[in-house]
Amino acid sequence: MTNSPIEAINVEPRLLCGPGPANISPDVLAALSKPLLGHLDPDMFEILTELAAMTARVYQRDEGDGVTLPISATGTSGMEAGIAALVEPGSTVIIGVNGYFGRRLVEIANRYHANVVEVEADWGQAVTNEALLEALAANPDARLMAVVHAETSSGVRHDLAELGEAMKDNDTFLMADCVTALGGIEVALSAWGVDYAYSCSQKCLAMSPGMSPISISQRAVDFMRSQPKPNTFYLDPQLLEAYWLTRPPAYHHTLPSPLVFGLHEALREVLNEGLEARWARHAEAGAYLQAAMAERNMELLADPAHQLPQLTAVLVPEGIDGAGVQKQMLREHGIEIGGGLPGAPAMWRFGLMGYNANTATADKVLAAFDAVMADAPTLAAA
Amino acid sequence: MTNSPIEAINVEPRLLCGPGPANISPDVLAALSKPLLGHLDPDMFEILTELAAMTARVYQRDEGDGVTLPISATGTSGMEAGIAALVEPGSTVIIGVNGYFGRRLVEIANRYHANVVEVEADWGQAVTNEALLEALAANPDARLMAVVHAETSSGVRHDLAELGEAMKDNDTFLMADCVTALGGIEVALSAWGVDYAYSCSQKCLAMSPGMSPISISQRAVDFMRSQPKPNTFYLDPQLLEAYWLTRPPAYHHTLPSPLVFGLHEALREVLNEGLEARWARHAEAGAYLQAAMAERNMELLADPAHQLPQLTAVLVPEGIDGAGVQKQMLREHGIEIGGGLPGAPAMWRFGLMGYNANTATADKVLAAFDAVMADAPTLAAA
Fold first, then answer.
1. Whole-prediction pTM value?
2. Interface contact flag, A37 B11, Cβ < 8 Å
């Protein structure tokens, strides 16, 4: 590059209605630019204690059950932290795969040299608990069963409560990807017996990306303590616990205070609204958008019985240039919607998450979609 | 916890003159709360290209030499990413240890099952290049030589240019911890032959914590490409490169856009100021503070020949309650200074970094320090 001066960034506000990040409230946005606070400041530890406790409430992890805190990195770091801490080379890991993020779980488990047993379903279908439990019966010593509670790449919900119930007397740990679930649909980790869950900050919690809330059951914490140290230092849950929750704390990393402040404000908003009210709001907005798409003869990818409200995957009609439609939505209407991730059928992904989960936002997206589709770019023209 | 409402965070502004985070400019603070932008937005990729190129300029990594980009996590993630990608179980790694962060390098290398050769020096002393090169002569197949360019725990600078020169015809990779160095003292990776460097955003670059700029030489990039995939997915430099630098990009993680915008603005400020002017400003401020401490008969920890300007470790005089002094600085004057990290002698750490690297800030710190020390808490009273 030349040495010419770089211009400051000028960001045009977007309506973010893809798979996330979603828009955030003015108060959460403002919290990101509060004055910085040091990671060892005594006032910081009061904030961390509150933030960890709020995270546990949103996950419905019972007080005294294990460890819940946010990692200072994005959602995939929470996925990796769990595998790194629970899996040894050769451990059997059963993974439900019906989309991109199940596939990512397989990728990470393979990197940690697990013996991976994949239980697959087609894009748009839920992996059945029957098939997962069959795999568990065939691999009774499996260390871990991992499923994607809300598959961001397809909009499919997993019947996690039912799987937890079926596994409740089992020694195999149950892991759930709650990246798109948390704050948008019911999550009840202690009641369901989920041993390890991870999520992100930028979807139904309505914060910016950058933090990954994780929650570990007491029995999984006890197991981790009995194991050799994992390779990873940055993502080691025990080191994170020693900083976030133990008093006096043991320094681990320099906390990104803007993200901590933002997440604190976002979780306050979640709890002030109430979990059930928030799920109901997501359910209403999602059903509204999905009905509107059906009225327009658009085909939804997900099995209706497992359709998430907060993420709607719409198949691109034959001949239409899906990427071109996305581009026009962005450039002509300032609205971000998602496309398909690698391996997916041609689709658009519409998210109504967190601050955006309401019918008024759905109406804005639908109006723009109708305007673009009235003269939609076609593949031949692309 | 009870279900009582949590109050919003109210942060009293601090003058942050410990080992970091340091204060940031109003423009950088404002950049943190620009509207969110999606990680796959076409406008984002222009920003990423600029940001990676600015990062390379600040590191003085030549155009075309390897890969330079920031990781979406704090400084220690950059330390771990390098070890995870360059070291295999059994690889010999020579590490210079003269403080807490050299010790952390040993900890992480051990977690990755390296054969670690430690070359130690006392707190406050530099590890000599002579001793490091002797260790290299005794371990000619060493995969990696790692040193801490600016030891945040003691304020000691390593003679990195000299070590690079001595190793320039060597196959052993040279890694440098530039966490406290970058933006504050000269760093010239390509000229010095540093194969892997990592830093943070919250010290002399004057951004919030949350990003870890890394820079990898071409020969180290080529080596990584020849190796099996590392365990880590989140911190795999090749996956980060495929998202940050390759076009079209391959999705890897959901970028924390507030931190990206903040770092973009912070690096703009660094480059607009000019690297040499910035180093000179740090040198002046640090020398001023250090002279003032000497006038007060305070003993500095670091060997004067290797004293960093941006980080000054002052030994706590006998009988004084060091932690009590820190607390009074914070509570009575709103100034954060650091204490010693685990294993260190009793000390205070004064940082004049980035936005704070000026004599006016030093005067504020000194005035508060004098006021507290006029009636300093003693250990007997503590």
1. 0.97
2. yes
